[in-house]
Specification:
By secondary structure, the chain is α/β, with parallel strands linked by helices. It has 23 helices and 19 strands. The chain has a seven-stranded mixed β-sheet, with helices on both faces. The protein has a seven-stranded mixed β-sheet with strand order 11-12-13-10-9-15-16, sandwiched between helices. Helix 15 links the parallel strand 7 and strand 8. Helix 10 crosses helix 11 and helix 16 packs across helix 17. The protein is flat, with a radius of gyration of 31 Å. The termini are far apart. The structure holds nicotinamide-adenine-dinucleotide. Nicotinamide-adenine-dinucleotide binds next to helix 14 and helix 15.
Length: 653
């Protein structure tokens, strides 16, 4: 079909095409397609004014350097940030240019893009007539951009050894490009990522809710809100945290300087669980990326959120190969570990953590293990009971109890036990269960069928030994919508107080005094988090210091992990290592120690040759240097200076 676009306009269109559709893995680059053949048809359907405007815009792009065209197209994707006419113009450019480019690429009669899509069984029909809601949902799913193969450029499924090797070859070859970016440049992507997530917030909540059966507010406040806090922490602190750090140099090394450099490790394997699938994806991925590493990320097979993370990273401008996503179960995890990443960041159960550490030990891969918890809450008699009760109910049942730091054991001082219990039961009975669309449900359903069975088993075991269900008696021990259960009359010999429940069940127990409370809290193989509730600040600090745990909140619950400047991690069976905060960020780095001396004629006194005189002087120096006060400084002059002059001077070449 004929058109009257000048060669300059077509050059501009081609330039923009190569920026928007650069090709890769089975997809040709835009300019490698025969798009011109189809352009006439598109131009034919434009009205006169649009055609003239489009000609002008593309002709301008034809003379502009590519980086300016790239900048304009990037600005156009950010149109939502610009109010008024500027935003509108950018929106028009975004829709117009992309619309034409994508149409030519994907919907040409027999264009290469369409051929590729056909091979991939992708339905290119986007112009679908209105149908009933259910049919529409199927069509939307078929045509959902999250299902588009474009989104899967950086993802893989159930890799065998060969594919796993290819994934890591790619990660290793892309790593130098990420490492070469400054932290500031990497932060540019983090900012875009934050904006993208903010922009797509509701869509993300929808996708997560669909896969997890969570209450909508749980997704918002437990996955997205803390995620934004984390991204903001990176934006404010990462540059400072990853800057070389000057370290003190001892007197014996006078004249030299010491620094620690925080360099990337190379390739990082992140393996995540199912309880916070979006948060547990983006937080470790961004920690790995900001420190300059290439990332291979494996979500849980139960909550893969297929396509979502990829599309968000792509929207934030990140290259597909920077973060590769691998879908699959434990077997895929095993294959990936066999590729010897430079670090494994694992969040999940104790059992899997042990297996991963065992496998990693064969290759000496450093592991960070964020494992389970059995968090105690201690409520003392001087506490504001109403507030503590409400805190306990939320802390035990938020995210349907499927949180590693939810309250799994509640200990209340004897003197307030009955009053506390009454409040607890009343508040628990108010909880509304459901998968809501408007924020009206308090608690959603369980994510994993296997976990439902575990919860049922633990509750039945406790009840068979005399425990009483104060709430939740109507549960059929099968449905994923488990009502919140308060259990009275349990003891530490029962499995319910030893194993992680990871569901909406709260065993309620009494303690006599401070020492008893501490003893009960520490009587666990876990040590992830805990909370102490009392009006007496000194007691709070005293008790907190005696609880063996990685994290603790005072007069609040699950709050230490809310501050992303604090490191997070467990002791005992709750894991190894820390992430988040400056400590956590640096754990994704090779901490390189650098001691710098200057090139001079001076030969070090401790280098060869050793002589009897050197030995005598060194003996005196050692005695003096590691004594305190005046002796140190006198000794330094008396033995140090003769030692220096006894050492030879190097000859200049
Ligand atoms: P899980 O251990 O069953 O699985 C976690 C991940 O490991 C999944 O992606 C799974 O596919 C993968 N995996 C399984 N076997 C593997 C193997 N042999 N090699 C490599 N990868 C393997 O855990 P889950 O049931 O998904 O999650 C729940 C657990 O996670 C709970 O114990 C919870 O306490 C813990 N968790 C801890 C934290 C924390 O920060 N400490 C946070 C959230 C959840």
């Amino acid at each position: 079909m004929r058109h009257d676009f000048s060669p300059l306009s077509l050059k501009g269109l081609s330039k923009a095409g190569d920026i928007v559709l650069p090709g890769g893995e089975g997809f040709p680059r835009f300019s490698e397609t025969e798009f011109i053949k189809h352009f006439g048809r598109i131009a034919y359907y434009m009205n006169q004014d649009d055609r003239e405007g489009f000609k002008l815009l593309t002709a301008m792009m034809g003379v502009m350097p590519s980086f300016i065209v790239r900048f304009i197209l990037w600005m156009a994707t950010m149109n939502h940030l610009f109010p008024g006419p500027l935003g509108a113009v950018l929106r028009q450019i975004n829709m117009g240019v992309r619309g034409v480019l994508f149409t030519m690429y994907y919907s040409g009669v027999d264009g290469p893009g369409k051929r590729v899509l056909k091979q991939l069984n992708y339905n290119t029909c986007i112009n679908t007539p209105y149908t009933e809601d259910t049919e529409m949902e199927t069509l939307l799913t078929q045509n959902n951009p999250l299902n588009s193969p474009m989104m899967f450029q950086n993802s893989h499924e159930n890799p065998g050894p060969t594919e796993a090797a290819a994934i890591f070859d790619k990660a290793r070859s892309t790593y130098p490009a990420i490492a070469a970016l400054t932290v500031k440049e990497r932060l540019g992507f983090i900012t875009k990522l934050r904006e993208t997530i903010l922009h797509r917030q509701e869509e993300i909540v929808d996708v997560v809710q669909k896969e997890t059966h969570k209450a909508r507010t749980d997704v918002l406040i437990s996955e997205l809100f803390p995620l934004f806090e984390h991204l903001e922490f990176l934006e404010h602190e990462a540059e400072k945290a990853l800057r070389p750090e000057k370290i003190a140099t001892p007197t014996s090394m006078m004249g030299k300087s010491s620094n620690v450099w925080f360099e990337p490790l190379g390739t990082i394997l992140v393996i995540s669980p199912w309880n916070y699938p979006f948060y547990q994806a983006i937080v470790p991925i961004t920690c790995s990326f900001i420190t300059g590493n290439a990332t291979v990320y494996k979500p849980s097979e139960l909550t893969p959120l297929k396509g979502l993370v990829e599309s968000i990273l792509i929207d934030a401008g990140m290259k597909p190969e920077w973060v590769q996503i691998v879908y699959g179960d434990g077997k895929s995890g095993v294959e990936l570990i066999n590729q010897r990443p430079q670090k494994i960041f694992f969040t999940g159960s104790v059992g899997t953590g042990k297996k991963i550490m065992g496998q990693a030990a064969q290759y000496l891969i450093p592991v960070e293990l964020e494992l389970g918890g059995k968090d105690p809450m201690l409520a003392f008699e001087d506490v504001n009971i109403d507030r503590a009760v409400k805190g306990a109910v939320w802390g035990a049942f938020t995210n349907t109890g499927q949180s590693c730091t939810s309250i799994e054991r509640l200990y209340v001082q004897e003197s307030i036990y009955e009053k506390f219990k009454q409040g607890l039961v009343e508040e628990t009975k108010k909880i509304k269960i459901g998968v809501d669309k408007d924020g009206s449900a308090d608690m959603g359903g369980m994510i994993s069928e296997r976990q439902i069975k575990i919860v049922a088993e633990l509750v039945k075991d406790a009840v068979s030994q005399g425990a009483v269900m104060l709430t939740g008696k109507d549960w059929d021990f099968q449905s994923r919508f488990i009502p919140p259960i308060i259990l009275e009359g349990t003891n530490h010999k029962m499995r319910i107080n030893q194993e992680e429940i990871f569901g909406p069940v709260l065993p309620l127990m009494k303690f006599k005094d401070e020492a008893h409370a501490i003893q009960l809290a520490n009587d666990s193989t876990f040590g992830l988090s805990a909370s102490v509730w009392t009006h007496d600040k000194e007691r709070a600090l005293r008790v907190a210091s005696k609880i063996v745990t990685g994290n603790i909140s005072i007069n609040n619950v699950m709050l230490s992990e809310g501050n992303h400047a604090l490191p997070f991690g467990g002791v005992k069976d709750s894991g190894i290592g820390r992430y988040k905060g400056v400590h956590g960020l640096r754990s994704f780095c090779n901490m390189k120690s650098v001691l710098a001396d200057s090139d001079s004629k001076k030969i070090e006194a401790n280098w060869y040759p050793y002589t009897p005189l050197k030995y005598t002087l060194f003996t005196g120096l050692t005695q003096a240097l590691f004594s305190m006060g005046l002796k140190k400084w006198v000794g330094l002059v008396r033995f140090g200076l003769p030692l220096e002059s006894h050492a030879q001077k190097a000859k200049r070449d």
